[in-house]
Amino acid sequence: MAIRQLPPSTVNRIAAGEVIERPASVVKELIENAIDAGARQIDATVAGGGLSLIRVSDDGCGIAASDLDLALERHATSKLDDDDLLAIHTLGFRGEALPSIGAVGRLTIESRASDARDGYAITLEGGQKSKLKPAALNPGTRIEVRDLFFATPARLKFMKSERAENAAISDIVKRLAMAHPYIGFTLTNGSRTTLRLPAEQEGETGPLRRLGRIMGDEFMADALPVGALREGLSLSGFGGLPTLHRGNAAMQFLFVNGRPVRDKLLAGAVRAAYGDFVPSGRHPMLALFLDVPTQEVDVNVHPAKAEVRFRDAAGVRALIVGALRQSLADAGHKAASSLAPRAYAHALPNASPSHGYDPQRSNFTPRDMGAGAGFGESAQSGLRGLNEPSGDVGASLERADDAGDQARPLGAARAQLHDTYIVSQTGDSIIIVDQHAAHERLVYERLKSQLENGGVQRQILLIPEIVELDETLADLIGDRADDIARFGVVLERFGRGAVAVREMPALLGNTDIKGLVCDLADEIAENAETFVLKERLEHVCATMACYGSVRAGRRMRGEEMNALLRDMEDTPHSGQCNHGRPTYVELKLADIEKLFGRR
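Now predict its structure.
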């Protein structure tokens, strides 16, 4: 077959196929143009899922009459100062959007430049341009697209339902609105306005207010500020507390130079930062804004500009992980303020019943968390002898420094309910603590700290513990004995199908050695091909901490409960356990009074 030059109409439709995937793509391109035009108010209207009508109006600088005809030509743009594609400071720059839209739909542009007396209109339908004609409108631009894909009817077969297309359009508008909080946005579907976001006042609180309007008051109340600078890179935004998570990543918003993106590198950095704070299969809520020098990022790798490529990808990842972890550490023991039900049940670790957390069980062997437990001086004295029966809880709660404890963030212990929950009192609230979840996090943080400072402190067993395993598992864990010793578990092969455990982490006290060794063996077996203990450090530590924590069903004395509260206040991330569940909830006195009609 002979080579031939494609006609312009076909070229435009091919380009449209790359740029205009669905109605939401049109809305994105038109709103980005409005933002680049300096608009302070952008109004979008759609009908029929965007297939019947898309209209975007703005109060930006407008298009001069002499430029309207040229604006509908391919690769014509006002957004590049020169031909340097490494110096892109606008959202749209390809010059393909308007002619691509006009190639597959009926496009009308009405615009009046800010310094012009009159406005003008031009139409592009199926690639055919009309003549310029006068139009009455205020300064700014109004673009209307009707009958999208009428020129390429095959594409209509691939459209989703009207509801799905409307949802995609709404998502696009919300993402752009989050990146530009000082611009007002409305979205109207037919005759009903589904989204109204007034322009926020300039200042530090404006971006968070805009995020709250989109992500909800829950996020606004539990958002942690995130900020970092490194070698020309700037990161800002907000990350939700680890106890504020969702079943998918729909509430994770990432922006690069004001451009909403879906980038695997950035998403991976978020997972790494929240790794041991959020349950498996759950996703934290956040909105992060990364500003990168234009020469350090390529935004031209995807026709719809939905992906970017960084020159120093490792540096960007390190910046995000470090900034998020610092914000989480600064939050200390804070947990999410909302008491709304969350899907925690399915997020429990894949562990044997011998150590799975079950608040109804009360037959756990109590742990001896003496001086070797790693608590602070006061905590050590309060938590010695947890393997002994507790005395009268009520009597032990009368303490000289009770008023001082009430002034602390987690207050003074008042009672223990169901041998599982500690109830404490502050000056203006009641706090309920899950003793097992809280202590599990404390043990976990101490294990990590000891690993970072030379290795976990070990305690020699008076009599080695013989653990029988499947022969294959025994071989696997035996081969990893040197690595596992870093975690304080010293073992060796003991015949066929068994190992002898000679030393255990001092933090764990009298723990279920067999259950722990079995779980470590399962962990190695499950990841036999890629298992590198260092990379699995957090998961292994979490498994060990679960064994070494105060169990539900353990009756605690008053000084023990207060010692636990004080240690939570001094330990980062103690607001959630190793599986992402909250360790405590706070009930404000004002809210309780409302329940009883006192307010």
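The chain has three domains: 8-195, 207-330, 359-599.
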